[in-house]
Amino acid sequence: MNPEVPVTRDEVLQFLNRNPVCHLATVEDGRPRVRGMFMYRADESGLIFHTGTNKALAKQVQSGAPVEVCFNNSDVQVRVSGVAAMADDEALKKEIIAARPFMQSWIDKYGAEMLLVFRVTQCRAAVWTIEDNFKPTTYQAL
Questions:
Q1: pLDDT in tens, 63-84
Q2: Residue 27 lies in a domain
Q3: Which of 6, 57, 67, 126 could form a disulfide linkage to 12, CB 3.0–4.6 angstroms apart?
């Protein structure tokens, strides 16, 4: 087994945190929507993301619909399926704003209310490598 391939729950979470640029799939009016995202953090509570309240993504995740997120590096792909849940946590919102200086001009212009923080919960992960290409997909709980 390739030592870079995450196997355990902790290894998968570490992989996600090392590779936070990902693609998030949602559904809107019965049609798939996929966009690149920059995950804030993955931990035992789920995957933490943020978006602007004015974005279509905000409406899509507020519905509580299933989502899937795809993370990868050059050798490994990890797909995480789960459910979007709002994270009504002011301390977390302040933490994100402090950790992401590029957002400060948006906060100054529109206020912190424009930031919607959400968590993907009930996560199940599927790890894929080229060696697994013809194997059935298997999921593990995160």
A1: 888 999 999 999 999 999 999 9
A2: yes
A3: 6
